[in-house]
Amino acid sequence: MTLKLHNTLTKKVEEFNSQEPGKVKLYTCGPTVYDHLTVGNWAAYIYWDTLVRTLKANDYTVDRVMNITDVGHLTSDADEGEDKLEKGARREGKTAWDIAAYYSDQFLEGMNNLNLLAPEHITKATDYIPQQLELIRKLKAKDYTYQIDDGIYYDTSKFPTYADFAGLDLEAQRAGARVTFNSEKRNPSDFALWKFTPAGEKRDMAWPTPADLTDDGSEKPGFPGWHLECSAMAMDILGETLDIHTGGIDHIPVHHTNEIAQSEAVTGKRFSNYWLHNNHLKVDGTKISKSLGNGYTLQDLSERGYSEMDYRMFVLQGHYSNEGNFTFDNLEAAKNRLKNWRSMAALRHQTHDTLIDDGDKLADDKTVQLLASSQAVIEALSNNLDTPAALAIIDDAFSQLEGKAAADIHQHGLVQLLETIDSTLGLNLLGTTPDISDDQKQLILERQQARDGKDWAKSDELRDQLTGIGIGLKDETRGTIWFYI
Ligand SMILES: [Zn+2]
């Protein structure tokens, strides 16, 4: 099977080939842990989880690094503003270290609840300070750096292809800067590799700047720039060239452009062969913002009766490269779809595996159809992670089963499809649809007997009893099927 992905580097959907056959070195820009993640943040992690699962379905072994930014990400996303961690610390009356620990734990718990695969390496920026300083040292040796009052900067004019990745118009930046730019920076696009702690300010997170990196040999305290963190952690673990680097489209013009500039200036090699970017998620058609109060968290959804899996289904209904729109109506639709899929998953407990009894039935049309659907799901995902197409294939496969007696549905094909759905889309259908108990089965049987004996009152009473414990019944021509309500 061919795996195709949209590469921001070439702006095309192209065939994916890893450097080493069968192995993928993947880096995902992780969260800045100063607050709860919003549904918008989580969507990205669901998309990239789908990428990992699709790579695995294509028989790749994935070595993935995801960073946790616990220092240096300023409120402007560039070099101005306050460190988000220090700001969070002030808001909650704690230290930046406490804030980082608390929200990192919250993030990991959210990942777990969303059934996101754990990356092989989760790295905290504060654990990689020496590696970050070493990168600055190498950039300094190659004359890419200069020092101004508030930090050590990267001179973007020395990296000739700086504008290429994002198609930046540096001339326009320069023209605009003549009006608004008031800094010692040589070029508006130059960015801080290392910031000095402002005089008179007390930061929780600061490290002495090594004497060989400062112009005057002083060891004044400072902290790393956000962009440098990702380059340092990615290259330290995965090597100088990654296969895939992922992030949000908002990372393209600054964060990822800067990662490329500093990494490639050091190594002289391409930093990543493929770059994948997810589009934004809006809420009720507007941008998510603190002031609008529309930055819903997983906790907010849970309080309104929606599970993490409902949200996961909602995200999978859209394509990662399209702008998404979150509304509670859309979430409700996703919840209903998931409920329907779980009922289909419960069917497997009511079928007979005729394949064991009769090998010839392997060629049975319905089984073949279900097995073909499994394959089609993987093919859809391998076509630039087309989750909406994969979901449509699954809906179609399930609709073929509607109205059929359980005995006519082949367990093998159904189970195979459910396993494919779980392994590629992470919806945990098998894990959330256990068989009902023998006592419950007995109630269904008694109801059937009451129906056969035309004892409608008893039949209704038993049906109500089952409804009360979350089990619904559908009477088909050749028997009754139960499902979860
Ligand atoms: Zn990053």
Brief summary:
The protein has helices at residues 39-57, 84-92, 96-113, 129-141, 170-180, 226-238, 252-267, 298-303, 308-316, 328-346, 354-357, 365-382, 387-401, 411-425, 438-452, 456-468, and strands at 4-7, 12-15, 23-28, 61-68, 121-124, 145-148, 151-154, 191-196, 207-208, 221-224, 242-248, 272-278, 281-283, 324-326, 471-476, 479-484. The chain is an alpha/beta fold and 485 residues long.
Question: Overview of this structure, please?
Answer:
The structure is a single chain. The chain is an alpha/beta fold and 485 residues long. The chain has 3 domains: 275 residues, 3-Layer(aba) Sandwich (Rossmann fold); 127 residues, Isoleucyl-tRNA Synthetase, Domain 1; 47 residues, no CATH class. The protein is 44% helix and 16% strand. It is built from 16 helices and 16 strands. The strands form 5 sheets. Strands 5-4-3-11-12 form a 5-stranded parallel β-sheet, with helices on both faces. Strands 6-7-8-10-9 form a 5-stranded antiparallel β-sheet. Strands 1-2 form a two-stranded antiparallel ribbon. Helix 1 links the parallel strand 3 and strand 4. Helix 9 packs across helix 10, helix 12 runs antiparallel to helix 13 and helix 12 packs parallel to helix 14. It is elongated and about 95 Å long. About 1% of the residues have low confidence. Zinc ion binds next to loops.
